[in-house]
Design a protein that fits this description.
single chain, 469 residues, alpha/beta, Rossmann fold, Nucleotidyltransferase, domain 5, eight-stranded mixed beta sheet, 18 helices, 36% helix
């Protein structure tokens, strides 16, 4: 078998290819797939980051070079887009550089040899059984054996992905057409931007074993399951072998900077989480959804201004600090927030400045890990605010779920808060009733704590309060 790497091959046939560090790791994974070390692979990454160039243009040409007998099918949301991928592959197959690398793999030139097929939707390898098919979603593949399926962008846009009918039709096509054309050793590659929690990837994740890729060792342990590589536009969590970025770094800053990505997040935080971060959520099954009331101006009868803070328990958690005002009827008006994964030496100052800016008189710091030290630091930085720290012994899941109706009834966010605090907004409106399906609980925990604090004494029974001295 030819030993040229997929990365070197890609640079040879696409000399204008803009190869970033993350592309190198992505292409290394695609090479493992091409050489048969993986049977089922899912790759999700943000729009305009080169996923289709690698998976649907360069990879089929590389695989046909390694094995001219392979039958590959490319599917997309439309036959026109699938044919576009096919034509691009054909142009690679007939270029001089490709012929030098893979002289055994060639396609029909003009009308010769006459017995071989070459159209925009199908091309056959001369002298072998292999070839490339392209088909739009819901198209037919009757009678065709497929050794490798590449499914690229099966949903055109959010309107399609949000349609239950389209999602159901896509799933039916996958099970009745794609799966029936496959045999024991067939391979599957699914690569697209996420739009909806119940898209094809979401359905597969709910029914089959999927390993989220964090190290190269995952390739060996995935077996017959799916390996899922998700590359976030803005990194969250700790660095890994696959994604060594620090939290907050952009995937391709020269193409889409953090500043630009944050602008996109502010425009539509929930969709940003799906398309750019690979974490979609459907409107169904949400605990709060977008039902939060909003306020334009504070009423005259404000009786108290306070703050509730939950410090980050683990490295991937958020510090969530919310300042608010309460009127005589017990309605709670959110004034300002700090929602950050920055280290405590940064968030201490951010919270202290917010306490002063929002003119609160008291602040409660909830944390079972480091809350007392954080509270003392904030107290020094905001001496006019009375700061307390407390241990929360109540069960988080029970608290959040049982008080969700009260949260929606009492809380009011300032109009435009989705643009002002996009991450907080996204994590609240997409928070699920299925507690275990949520990655972050910090925002939900704090809004729950606020209504507990402002409620009756019975709601405070699990809080052991300590005043700083």
């Amino acid at each position: 078998m030819n030993t040229i790497s997929f990365t070197d091959f890609s640079r040879e046939v696409y000399p204008f290819l803009d190869m970033q560090a993350f592309h190198g790791r992505y292409y290394r994974l695609l090479e493992l797939f091409a050489r048969g070390h993986l049977r089922r692979l899912i790759v999700t990454m943000p729009p305009q980051h080169g996923k289709s160039v690698g998976a649907s243009t360069l990879l089929p040409a590389y695989m046909l070079g390694l094995n001219p007998d392979m039958r590959i099918a490319i599917a997309s949301y439309s036959s026109m887009l699938a044919s576009k991928f096919n034509r691009r592959v054909q142009r690679i197959l007939e270029c001089r550089e490709y012929g030098e690398l893979f002289p055994e793999t060639s396609i029909k030139q003009g009308g010769r040899p006459p017995q071989y097929i070459r159209t925009a939707d199908e091309v056959e390898i001369v002298g072998y059984d292999g070839g490339l098919l392209s088909v739009g979603r819901e198209g037919s593949l009757t009678g065709n054996r497929v050794d490798c399926f590449i499914l690229d962008d099966l949903y055109k846009d959010a309107m399609e992905a949000n349609s239950p009918i389209v999602r159901e039709n896509c799933w039916e096509w996958y099970t009745s057409v794609v799966k029936t054309r496959m045999h024991n050793t067939s391979q599957e590659l699914i690569v697209f931007t996420r739009w909806h929690e119940e898209d094809l990837i979401g359905s597969l994740r709910s029914m089959e074993r999927v390993v989220d890729m964090e190290s190269w060792e995952d390739v060996e342990r995935v077996g017959d399951g799916w390996l899922h590589l998700n590359l976030e536009a803005v990194k969250t969590g700790s660095p890994t072998d696959i994604d060594p970025r620090q939290a907050g770094e952009a995937l391709w800053p020269e193409r889409q900077s953090v500043a630009l990505l944050e602008q996109k997040r502010r425009l539509d935080p929930v969709r940003f989480e799906a398309m750019y971060q690979g974490r979609p959520s459907s409107r169904g099954g949400q605990l709060y959804g977008d039902a939060f009331a909003e306020w334009d101006s504070l009423p005259d009868h404000i009786v108290r201004r306070a703050n509730y803070t939950d410090t980050a328990d683990e490295g991937d958690d958020y510090l969530c600090s919310i300042s608010y005002a309460v009127d005589a009827d017990g309605v709670i008006y959110i004034l300002d927030t700090v929602y950050s994964r920055e280290p405590m030496e940064v968030t201490e100052r951010l919270v202290a400045d917010m306490l002063t800016r929002s003119e609160v008189r008291s602040a409660s710091v909830e944390s079972n890990n480091g809350g007392r030290g954080f509270a003392r630091a904030v107290q020094r930085l905001a001496p006019r605010v009375k700061v307390e720290w407390f241990h929360q012994s109540g069960n988080k899941q029970a608290r959040i779920l049982s008080h969700s109706a009260t949260v929606l009834h009492l809380l009011r966010f300032p109009r435009g808060w989705a643009q002002r605090w996009p991450e907080l907004y996204a994590h609240l409106v997409s928070y699920r009733r299925d507690f275990q399906s949520n990655r972050w609980h910090d925002a939900a925990d704090v809004v729950t704590g606020i209504v507990e604090r402002e409620g009756s004494d019975s709601l405070r029974s699990n809080r052991k309060i300590h005043f700083l001295k």
